[in-house]
Amino acid sequence: IKKTLAKPGVKNIVLVDGVRTPFLQSGTIYADLMPHDLARAALQGLLNRTGLPKDAVDYIVYGTVIQEVKTSNVAREAALGAGFSDKTPAHTVTMACISSNQAMTTAVGLIAAGQCDAVVAGGVEFMSDVPIRHSRRMRKTMLSLNKAKTLGARLSLLGSIRLAHLAPELPAVAEFSTAETMGHSADRLAAAFGVSRLEQDEFALRSHTLAKKAQDSGLLSDVISFKVPGKDIVSKDNGIRPSTMEQMAKLKPAFIKPHGTVTAANSSFLTDGASAVLIMSEEKALAMGYKPKAYLRDFVYVSQDPKDQLLLGPTYATPKVLEKSGLTLNDIDVFEFHEAFAGQIMANLKAMESDWFAQTYMGRKTKVGAPPMEKFNSWGGSLSLGHPFAATGCRLVTTVAHRLQKEGGQYGLVAACAAGGQGHAMVIEAYPQ
Amino acid sequence: MSPMTTGFWVKGHGQRSLSVSSAVLARTHVSYEVKDNVAVVRINDPTSKVNTLSRHMQAEMVEVMNEIWGNAAVKSAVLISRKPGCFIAGADINMIQACKTAEEVTSLSQEGQKIFDQVEKSPIPIVAAINGSCLGGGLEFAIACQYRIATKSKKTILGTPEVMLGLLPGAGGTQRLPKMVGLPAAFDMMLTGKNIRPDKAKKMGLVHQLVDPLGPGLKSPEERTIEYLEEVAVDFAKGLAGRKVTVEKKKGLVQKIQDFVMGLPPVRKQIYKTVHSKVMKQSKGLYPAPLKIIECIQTGIEKGNAAGYLTESQNFGKLAMTSESRALIGLYHGQVTCKKNHFGKPERDVKKLAVLGAGLMGAGIAQVTIDKGVATILKDTTEEGLARGHQQVYKGLNDKTKKKSLTTFERDGIMSLLSGQLDYRDFENADMVIEAVFEDLSIKHKVVKEVEAVIPPHCIFATNTSALPIKDIAAASKRPEKVIGMHYFSPVDKMQLLEIITTNKTSKDTTASAVAVGLKQGKVIIVVGDGPGFYTTRCLAPMLAEAVRALQEGVGPKKLDSLTTGFGFPVGAATLADEVGIDVAAHVAEDLGKAFGTRFGGGNVEVLKMMVQKGFKGRKSGKGCYVYGAKSKEKKVNSGAEDILKSFKLTAPPAVSADEDIQYRLVSRFVNEAVLCLQEGILPDPVQGDIGAVFGLGFPPCLGGPFRFVDSHGADKLVQKMKRFEEAYGNQFTPCQLLLDHAKDSSKRFHK
Questions:
Q1: Are A314 and A425 in contact (CB under 8 A)?
Q2: Are A183 and A268 in contact (CB under 8 A)?
Q3: Would you list which residues of chain A are within 8 Å, Cβ to Cβ, of chain B?
Q4: pLDDT band with cut points at 50, 70 and 90 for residue B714
Q5: Is A116 a catalytic residue?
Q6: pLDDT digits (tens, 9 = 90+) for B328-343
Q7: pTM for the complete prediction?
Q8: What ipTM was assigned to the predicted interfaces of this complex?
């Protein structure tokens, strides 16, 4: 057995357990819900799974990306609905696709600082309904209408409305700073690293195949069943669809046309879903009679150029967090990387294998190396399981814990990229069996 | 290259009997490899930063193309440059300039036409893969190819800039472009010479596909982007060869209608007429190239290809021999020279600049500085002044976002480099201070002292004055070797010229640093000696004095404007005075009048002073020679100014008051003063004199600047005219010694 990563003077913080709702393609069975409904389901699921007394929770942190304006602090709305004590404060964080990672590390921070002992963290994303706004001009007119005192003033404002006012503003998965959609950036990234269409399709197929296998053999034990109001009980992810290379090859590029390589089949799809984890100080967990699943150890956040290195977060975060923990890539038994696009994963693997990239862009002496594929996302990933933006982080961490238990390893590594050119990585240590 | 191949090259150039392997060895500019039945032809001129269609390049290209066409295994080809920022920047200007006769140039054009004709009729499809500048002959090459793919890089621009050199696209451009992009767009491209960005080029049908530039991967972004472009182009070449990709684009309804309308001869006739009259209106008939371009296009469309190509090559030959083309090419070369730092690398880079005074000039200087990534302090004495200046900078950048040359995020990032303030905070970190405060010596002295108390010892103090001698300002300085003049022109973000003025105490490093800053700001730079009015203001002042005299003699502002623009000045003299500001003009006229005496006389300074008194300060005050502010296009003459002129009325001597006389009175005073500046050593050479006059003062570009004008017009003829004016008016028209020398000896020329 390898050494433990416990550090003197630093509290041991543990993952007690983690759950998630089934991840469904948006516009399917969850279509009529609201985000806090999904979040509520995950939170209730966590309570059921852990048997945690509701008042034992000191704090709730929840992540979300596309905000429903009615529930901007979705953490609080969901917590109230899930039956948590109204005395438990809750706040919402947002950091694109690493929002629930941010929720978890916020929890770790609260515990490490001695302010809390038990924190629930999680994330929700609901893409079946997104806020579509009136145009700025229309909003301005409507706001002025509120202030208009006389009928005449109101009529004249109404009369000023033109057809152009009525064009709605749609949200896009695009960088605000560069106006480039993420898929477009992923395609350019894949091209920059010379990732072929074939490599991308192969990786996507691998993800779906492994996910299917994991689903069929009951490994995805973090998934809870969810009775959707007015619908059936949902207990399985519905985006896993292993296809054939021939079928995938037929798809046209989705972003860079006609010569791009990123297609619908080798990208993660729009997903509805929520996740939640229970994080505690080891002391408290043991005192409450829990058998924790893993230690949450060092973590880092990184950021880089949002234009040309938008999705390279894992490349930057991995060597940094390994260094912090005093580990090398070889020490890691389980890798869980967020799969935004097959091309993005392949580009990151190539970047991690390149001394030139490490030296030229990261100011490092040598490459960190690419994870061996047999240890990498072996139960599927975001490409196949789905990627509800803010819920993915908890899935990654819980999966690492479960894989460490199942496969008998000691260290796991989570890494993810996020919009804004940011990234995150965390080292997880198996809890002694 | 080994000595053997070099020697071999000299002998072997152009010979067709070489074996393939030795020919490959000998080639230095064009190489190719066959990948999967696609010939990838790579161009790279090893002797230059850019690729040009030199004789050398053409010869190798012909060789390579013949080899490719002779190779049955090659089913398609890709043409690509190995240089990151340049596809082909155009024909080799020196090659054209080396020709002695129009016939020689015509045959050059015909050779080019022939090569591109073969390319157009190529039995295999050729894909031009464009990254970086694709201009002039480079674009003509590209449009002869069957398919074009361009990167969306900021460096990728397409265009036909020949007109700006007084030439025309002489290798089939005038014939192919109208068919490709339609008559109106073709006229627009060729008559304006403007650069077309990739997105626009795609919309116009100038290129078929766009490729996004890549960021870092396993190679540098530049290198990988070219590789990627090549990969994409090779795929398209294969697709074209296998007929999986078609060249023809489906035409939309608008296009169909346009094609139909353009098919009607009366419509086309109307277009030619409209374009012709527009050109005449804008160029006053002073530029032959645009008219020849129209003729070429018209001949090609109305009389067929053979006639079109013949007209193109003949007109190209004729244009190359015109004085206008020589003048414009001279300016081009001059501009290249004035975009270099001839004073060496400064000891330290200017990383923080401070600008004093947030007026029009100060804010303009701040804008062009932050725009290039240099942190800038903008200091003013009042909050209102500061807010106005800040808004000017913001608007300047925001206008760029509207034109899409900048994203809003880039704008915000650039703005974050600007620190607006009322105090001297952080001046201890400034590497250079440029003052742009009110033109008053005592105020300037006060500022020098205040600033020197807070800046570090290495910091340079530059003064943006338009007329005050720098040594007088430097008199207040403890470190005159660090004091220099940086004369910007308004509006700073639009005017290309920067006139740098050194005193005999200014150190070389100070000059090097000022030039480096100016170059960073994107300026064309002349470096001149110190004296009242330096070079540019000193040339302008006598011309404006003459303009005032003409006004006093009863030439109305409109007539005066049309006489000056008719001579080739982009802005008429009366309008120019309004733009400069009547108050500034009065100030300068008085100061320089004191310094130079009656030579700077002519018009009565009191006219200007009276106008200032009445509030007619020019455009900025809404009234000057003209009335501004009204939205109507027709400028109205300010009757108040006319009344003043009447009260100062002079009688026009009939012998020197014909239209042409008035034009030459204005121009000869300008030119004489310029030559005098060279004679006195204020101006180091004629090239900088021409560049300064054209880029700073709008001296007619078709004349190439005052010095080239003397060369082409003849110093003797000019002196004759001046003598006649001298008789009527006196010493304002006395030709200077250097001009007399040139008049005496016609072999003396300012330019070779």
A1: yes
A2: no
A3: 176-179, 184, 188-189, 191-194, 256, 258-259, 305, 307-309, 347, 350-351, 354, 356-357, 360-361
A4: very high
A5: no
A6: 999 999 999 999 999 9
A7: 0.92
A8: 0.94
